[in-house]
TrEMBL record:
Domain Lactate/malate dehydrogenase C-terminal span(s) in chain numbering: 160-325
Function: Catalyzes the reversible oxidation of malate to oxaloacetate.
Protein name: Malate dehydrogenase
Chain positions recorded as substrate binding sites: 95, 101, 134, 165
Species classification: Bacteria, Pseudomonadati, Pseudomonadota, Betaproteobacteria, Burkholderiales
Pfam families associated with the record: Ldh_1_C, Ldh_1_N
Keyword Metal-binding: no
Family per record: Belongs to the LDH/MDH superfamily. MDH type 2 family.
Keyword set, alphabetical order: NAD, Oxidoreductase, Tricarboxylic acid cycle
Length: 328
């Protein structure tokens, strides 16, 4: 017997990430090849955006996806989020050259107060929320704080792109397959202060750190490359990352819903106080997922260099939080 459809809301559905994301959700790459989906697509009320959204929906129709059980266009989060199981909050302004993601707070923060309130009012109580719009951690924090009747654990921010970027850089440096790298993670904020940490990573049981050997490479090449990759893409493409961002969003939601079979992944989640991060701070952690729940990997040793990096990214998140306190 076929499963009941899951309702998935995607905001910014006519944007560039939306265009790389929707077709993959409809084809079953996010929630499973046996899981029908209904897409509830939100765009701003602007006539041009709504028309572009209609165009994307025409293309979705033309794919005749067997798992696409329905779709609807919305300009109001109160209807877009009605009874949803999953929300991918993508709709927000992207940065341009020379900007940092936190420079977007003034433009984007209010979107997430309104959308948090709408989720609070109409979404399923078990809704899984992934915030992609930048600055992702602080926007997720705003949405969570604006939805007091929903469990805090339902709100997450995307650090999976940083995780995937790190994996590729490590695989290239060590000359190993991405798929063979285990127990890698990224701590903190989706910003250049993030701390991509391969101290625990292994390849077929061997320490990746030992395989790489070159301690200097971590500080002078790896961390800056991963941390500034978003800006490098903007510089090269003239637009911010889209297909790789959509891919990371699919990875994040798939792993959360379907589980990681013991593998570590990175998710931005509200802290429970682990590793000394203040409760509720939306922080990138190593997690494993099982039965639709994520669990922070506990008991990792934090050396002096790592603690300095973690303190730096936490300080930035605290600053961003202070900058939006008037909205909460
Ligand atoms: P885009 O400009 O191509 O598309 C954004 C879309 O969102 C537009 O169609 C716009 O009309 C819509 N939108 C704006 N406000 C909205 C609202 N209140 N409700 C619904 N829709 C709204 O941008 P993009 O390239 O798709 O990027 C979207 C966001 O994702 C940006 O903030 C970008 O910085 C961020 N991003 C995050 C990551 C990450 O790793 N967390 C990676 C890449 C991009
Ligand atoms: C990224 O990391 O590619 C995105 O957050 C877009 C950006 O502004 O860098």
């Amino acid at each position: 017997m076929s499963k009941a459809p899951m309702k998935v809301a995607v905001t910014g559905a006519a944007g560039q990430i939306g265009y790389s994301l929707l077709f993959r959700i409809a084809s079953g790459e996010m929630l499973g090849k046996d899981q029908p989906v209904e897409l509830q697509l939100l765009e701003i009320p602007d006539e041009k955006a709504q028309k572009a959204l209609k165009g994307v929906m025409m293309e979705l129709e033309d794919c005749a996806f067997p798992l696409l059980a329905g779709m609807s266009a919305h300009s109001d989060p109160m209807t877009a989020f009605k009874d949803i199981d999953c929300a991918l909050l993508v709709g927000a302004r992207p940065r341009g050259p020379g900007m940092e993601r936190k420079d977007l707070l003034a433009a984007n923060a209010q979107i997430f107060t309104a959308q948090g309130k709408a989720l609070n009012a109409v979404a399923k109580r078990t809704v899984k929320v992934l915030v992609v719009g930048n600055p992702a951690n602080t926007n997720a924090y705003i949405a969570m704080k604006s939805a007091p009747d929903l469990p805090k654990k339902n709100f997450t921010a995307m650090l999976r792109l940083d995780h995937n970027r790190g994996l590729s850089q490590l695989a290239a440096k060590a000359g190993v397959a991405v798929a063979d790298i285990e127990t890698f993670c990224v701590w903190g904020n989706h910003s250049p202060t993030m701390y991509a940490d391969y101290r625990f990573a292994t390849v077929k049981g061997k320490s990746l750190k030992d395989m790489i050997g070159d301690e200097e490479w971590n500080r002078t090449a790896f961390l800056p490359t991963v941390g500034k990759r978003g800006a490098a893409i903007i510089e090269a493409r003239g637009l911010s990352s889209a297909a790789s961002a959509a891919n990371a969003a699919i990875d994040h939601m798939r792993d959360w819903v379907l589980g990681t079979q013991g593998k570590w992944v990175t998710m931005g989640i509200p802290s429970d106080g682990s590793y000394g991060i203040p409760v509720d701070t939306m922080f990138g952690y190593p997690v494993t997922c099982e039965g639709g729940e994520y669990k922070i990997v506990q008991g990792l040793a934090i050396d002096e260099f790592s603690q300095t990096c973690i303190n730096k990214t936490l300080a930035e998140l605290n600053e961003e939080k202070d900058g939006v306190s008037h909205l909460l």
